Amino acid sequence: MLAAVAAAGVIGTLAACGGSAGGGGDDELTVWMLTLEGAQKEAMDTLVSDFEAANEGVTVNIEERSTDAHKDALRQVAGTDAGPDIYWYWEGPGLGGELVEAGLSKDLTAEYEQYGWADRFGEATLSNITRYGGYHGVPFTQQAEAIYYNKELFAQAGITAEPTTYEEFEAAAAKLAAAGITPITFGGTVNWHVMRLLDSLIETNCGSDTFDQLVTTETSWDTPCVDESFTQLKTWGDEYFNDGFQGVADAEAQQLFYTGDAAMAYEGTWFDSLTVDNGMDPANIGVFKFPTGTERLYGFGEGFYINAASDKPEDAAKFLDFVTSTEEQNKVVGAFSPISVNTEVPTATGNPLHELWPPLYDAASGFYLNNDQNLTLDQTTEYWRVMNSVLTGGLAPADAGAEFQAFVDSNA
């Protein structure tokens, strides 16, 4: 009962903030998304101001939240009219798909035909938009994730080349630690940050086919390659992570990279602009694919969805058509990702780091998704619990796969 009352209170607060299905006047669109800063904030301000100038009388109200607060807010308004007109979210089945299943997302099949969106975006970019039947969401970014590293710190540790195998990667971490340099920085208070390493270790040890079978529960997690991945995760946590990482948030962890107090960060294409915004010299930064030994690149898609409860779906669609248009994407490409989802927009050139990504995209045979986007919400929560139990010593790495599989079996 207390939980129900608390949830009702939160929804009431959100309704007061956003109003009924977006709130505001007849000519106001409410958009929920993550908190933006620096170049990304400027880019979104540009898109909004351009749209408002082209649509006299229409106001776009952007409401920003931190990652976990954004997830919670959207889950709480699903099935109500307290949500926004448009919401930004990840596209994978474990996140975007959860809200599709909850009925929050409007099927945009008619809008795709009206605006010709299917021709604007590439096939790979649309794969998570069409996976639920119809069209749910409009692509906004196709992000890739890789290892950013500080060239000066690598040189200090005697590392002369980017690692191309997992063995070389771990050896580089050992050299950095021996030189008194924190090898890699993670924020443990947000589970999805450390999860990036675990996901990539599983891709490394199990291979692409088995990885995909694991996340779709077509094969058992109680397998040696999963046990090896958790064993390696424990080693990284004990020997190569920043001290006290479990009490550090992702933003704090990133600061260690910006200030030169950690040699590596496992981040994505959005990090190009963040490093420069935080005063780093891009000439001192390198980027390499996590050396899984597979041809896939780690990454995910992000999109804007129209709330099925919005009473302004036409204006919402007009906004999404505008912000993904060739003209507008040419203005903001590079702020959110160096490669636009609009196939007519060339790769960004404003930041030298952007030039490092096309070879990684071109060499990739596809993407393996972050597992909080592959797994269901309940599975993700258990995945994180098992991960943290291994890192804190509460669970032996050799027992981790079996424990997660037991949860999958009991909730099938």
Question: What count of helical segments does DSSP give?
Answer: 19
Largest sheet: 9 strands, mixed
- N-end to C-end Cα span: 28 Å
Mind telling me the C-alpha Rg?
21 Å
Give the CATH H-level superfamily of the largest domain: Periplasmic binding protein-like II
Please tell me the total number of domains. Answer: 2
- What would the principal axes of the Cα set say about the shape? globular
Q: What percent strand?
A: 5-15%
CATH topology of the largest domain: D-Maltodextrin-Binding Protein, domain 2
Provide the structure class: alpha/beta
State the CATH class of the largest domain. Answer: Alpha Beta
Helix and strand sequence: HEHEHEHHHHEHHEHHHEHEEHHHEHHH
- The count of strands amounts to 9
Gist?
It is built from 19 helices and nine strands. By secondary structure, it is α/β, with parallel strands linked by helices.
Any chance you could write out the topology, listing elements then pairs?
Blueprint (H helix, E strand, L loop, with lengths): L1 H17 L9 E7 L3 H17 L4 E7 L1 H11 L8 E5 L5 H6 L7 H7 L1 H4 L2 H4 L11 E13 H6 L9 H13 L5 E2 L5 H25 L8 H16 L10 H9 L5 E5 L2 H7 L7 E4 L7 E11 L6 H11 L2 H7 L24 H7 L2 E3 L2 H4 L2 H16 L4 H14 L2
Parallel strand pairs: 1-2, 1-3, 5-6, 8-9
Antiparallel strand pairs: 3-8, 4-6, 4-7, 4-8
Helix pairs in contact: 10-11, 11-18, 11-19, 18-19
In words, what does this structure look like?
This protein has 412 residues and is of the alpha/beta class. The protein folds into two domains: 2-143 and 300-363, 3-Layer(aba) Sandwich (D-Maltodextrin-Binding Protein, domain 2); 145-298 and 369-410, D-Maltodextrin-Binding Protein, domain 2 (3-Layer(aba) Sandwich), CATH 3.40.190. It has helices spanning 2-18, 38-54, 67-77, 96-101, 109-115, 117-120, 123-126, 151-156, 166-178, 191-215, 224-239, 250-258, 271-277, 313-323, 326-332, 357-363, 371-374, 377-392, 397-410, and strands spanning 28-34, 59-65, 86-90, 138-150, 184-185, 264-268, 285-288, 296-306, 366-368. Strands 1, 2, 3, 4, 5, 6, 7, 8 and 9 form a nine-stranded mixed beta sheet that branches. Helix 2 links the parallel strand 1 and strand 2. It starts with a helix and ends with a helix. The relative contact order is 0.17. Residues 1-20 have low confidence and may be disordered.
